[in-house]
Fold this protein.
Amino acid sequence: MKHNQTRQVVFPILAAFIWGTAFVAQDMCADSIGAFAFNASRYSIAVLALLVVIVISDKLKKDKPALSPAEKKAANRQLWLGGLCCGAALAMASNFQQAGMVAGTDSGKAGFLTALYVVLVPVCGLFFKRKVSLPVWIAVALSVIALYLLCINGEFSLAPGDLLILACAVCFTIHILVIDHFTATVDGVKLSCLQFLFAALISTVCMFLFEDVDFAAIWGCILPLLYVGIFSCGVGYTLQILAQKGSNPTVVTILLSLESVFAVIAGAIILKQQMSVREYIGCAVMFAAVILAQIDFPVKKKAE
């Protein structure tokens, strides 16, 4: 039980750290290659990285559960269906995000609008009869305030690019809920690998349809692509899937939203960007939200 609680807290925080630092690598690629080329490349790299992990882990497993041909077929069908659903949602989310930034939405506003999944996940969960406690709702509200302090400077207004980012937030919400559905029945690492396979295929088709493909430019970005492919995708999203297995998706979502805090810190350290007092306050509020979401408050028992 304690091991599961550690997994459900540590894994999403590690994923958020990896995603936050990956913004530096993403910025390095943004001026050289298109959104579809970027996503097709990084998801393809993620598939290759996870295939190595799957082969090694399968060889290390000594006691494999014996399944009948019918059970094995049903399990494989569920795994491939989960990979398709997760991959389609991930491809739409990541490409909407890139398209919105290309259309003119700055990275700060894009970060805030994308992270609205912090609110959308518990709201959508209500339709699936998932109860959300009052402390978690307060943590959600604090997370939104923190994201605003971290990401938005100046006047807030919605432009056409912002609407694309909002569509991205909806797709990420769907992605989290779909993962929550399939992780109960399938292997997390294999599901992650298949979702990247389908996301890579979708992005590759869109790349050839809508962009002028420059393989020399893609190769010129190979180092940051390797980072986002292996770590941001292969490691980060796999940690997300493993963290969500048997856990509350709302709490995991709040932990994942720490990505914005790590992005600010990484920008300050790596890109020498100075953090304002407002951003430090945002980090403190986000930390408070995370702590609040993890506290088990005593439940009052009804009088018999």
User: Anything to note?
Assistant: The first helix runs from residue 2 to 30. The two ends are 30 Å apart (CA to CA). The mean pLDDT is 80.
